[in-house]
From TrEMBL, chain A:
InterPro entries: DUF1638. Residues 28-191 form the DUF1638 domain. It holds the Pfam family DUF1638. It comes from the Bacteria. This is DUF1638 domain-containing protein.
Automatic annotation (TrEMBL), chain B:
Residues 1-88 form the B12-binding N-terminal domain. Residues 88-210 form the B12-binding domain. GO terms for molecular function: cobalamin binding; metal ion binding; methionine synthase activity. GO terms for cellular component: cytosol. CDD domains: corrinoid_protein_B12-BD (cd02070). It comes from Acididesulfobacillus acetoxydans. The keyword Mitochondrion does not apply. Belongs to the methylamine corrinoid protein family. This is Cobalamin (Vitamin B12)-binding domain protein. PROSITE patterns: B12_BINDING (PS51332), B12_BINDING_NTER (PS51337). Pfam families: B12-binding, B12-binding_2.
Length: 215, 210
């Protein structure tokens, strides 16, 4: 059985760390979930074009429904049963749910999130260029006014000290508490090692990924 | 360009000071407040909505349009109260439990107010119990719920279920909105309407409160 992983660039370092040599990997651009139809189209095109593998694994979750309706006549599709990459970075949906119950008002970052500029300070800089600094500050203040903490998920990739310090600065910028949380590659490891239990949506050839499988 | 069209352009461009100035000028020259709202401010949002949907406008720009709309409403709201607002028509609105996103919800509140409705905004992270209490307290006829996350949207169902338990379900019409929800989700959880955007929310509320 030959397999390949399609993953969001946000998880690049984490996936590479656990990827066995016999699995192929293709990384897709960051933040496609912002336009879920586009994410779905990009993934489906890759599924349709692939003739070399039997199993396709996804470094994605439900991701704003970006994976819903994916289908293949020839491949088994395997997707972690999570809403998004925060659970993947924490190692389990349960851990995310627990954290969420504790403080829903949390903004999460990881190396991948910082690298792609998907955090308030990078947004502020982009908005400043486009709309001027005063408007940018107003936009950020309004978008993040309800947040209470920023958590850096440390998955032990890259220059950890740098990312932790950066996270601390971003937390200061939006005036929230900073915390570092130990991440885990447990779920991604299970994905690439074929340990597909209840924590995964496994879709056989000829079937379709359904939204309700994730809820 | 007519003053109405000019005002609509200012809203679309997010030019808050210009909206404020022109709205005041129109009020001073005797233009009816409801006409300014409908043909000026809301006409501006009518430009924004489709542009946001097809990706020509982004969230920050919509926020700035909303801010501009708000500047106009600040002037007009006191002038329409009593004349067009019926206190009997109350809408209770909020973002559901666990969800903190309120940019879209705030815009809906503003647009509903511009339609002359009395809106009780419960804010974000509103528990089912809080919704129920607010419906009772305000004798509301419409409940609006927003969610931006697939993890929180099921709390809409929790809220509807609690309203049933409390015997309130027949008293209120429930409308829902937010990126992850859809008409089919509305049907599934037993909501009365799905609103794709703020203008749709106003139209729907209008039908419910006729």
């Amino acid at each position: 059985m030959k397999g390949k992983v399609f993953a969001c660039y946000t998880l690049a370092d984490e996936i590479r760390k656990v990827l066995p040599p016999d699995l192929d990997l293709e990384l897709l651009p960051y933040a496609l979930h912002l336009t879920p139809d586009k994410l779905r189209k990009e993934l489906q095109e890759r599924i349709d074009a692939d003739m070399e593998h039997d199993v396709l694994l996804f470094g994605y979750g439900l991701c704003s429904y970006g994976v819903v309706n994916l289908h293949s006549e020839r491949h088994t599709l395997v997707i972690p049963r999570v809403h998004d990459c925060i659970s993947l970075l924490m190692g389990a949906r349960e851990i995310y749910d627990r954290e969420f119950a504790k403080v829903p008002a949390t903004f999460y970052v990881s190396k991948g999130w910082v690298d792609q500029g998907a955090e308030p300070y990078a947004e502020f800089q982009r908005h400043s260029e486009k709309y001027g600094q005063k408007n940018a500050q107003w936009i950020i203040d309004n978008q993040y006014c309800h947040y209470q903490r920023l958590v850096f998920i440390d998955t032990e990739v890259g220059d950890r000290e740098h990312y932790e310090n950066y996270g601390r600065e971003v937390a200061q910028f939006i005036k929230v508490e900073f915390q570092r949380q130990v991440g885990s590659l447990r779920l991604l490891t299970k994905l690439v090692q074929g340990d597909w239990d209840k924590e995964f949506v496994v879709v056989p050839p000829g079937h379709m990924v359904m939204q309700r499988q994730f809820l | 360009m007519s003053e109405f069209a000019q005002l609509a352009q200012f809203v679309y461009k997010g030019a808050a000071p210009s909206v404020k100035e022109l709205t005041q000028k129109m009020v001073d020259s005797g233009t009816s407040p409801m006409e300014i709202i409908t043909n000026g401010l809301l006409a501006g949002m009518d430009i924004v909505s489709p542009k946001f949907k097809n990706g020509e406008m982004f969230v920050p720009e919509v926020m700035m349009s909303a801010r501009a709309l708000g500047e106009g409403m600040k002037i007009l709201k006191p002038l329409i109260s009593g004349e067009d607002v019926s206190v009997a028509k109350t809408i209770v609105i909020g973002t559901v439990s666990g969800d903190l996103h309120d940019i879209g919800k705030n815009l809906v509140v503003m647009i509903l107010e511009s339609g002359g409705f009395n809106v009780v905004d419960l804010g974000v992270d509103v528990s089912p119990a809080k919704f129920v209490a607010a419906v009772k307290e305000n004798n509301a006829q419409v409940v609006g719920m927003s969610a931006l996350l697939t993890t929180t949207m099921l709390n809409m169902k929790e809220t509807i279920d609690l309203m049933k338990e409390e015997g309130l379900r027949d008293q209120v019409k429930i409308m829902i909105g937010g990126a992850p929800v859809s008409q089919s989700f509305a049907d599934e959880i037993g909501a009365d309407a799905y609103c794709a955007d703020a203008m749709a929310a106003k139209d729907t509320a209008g039908k419910f409160l006729k």
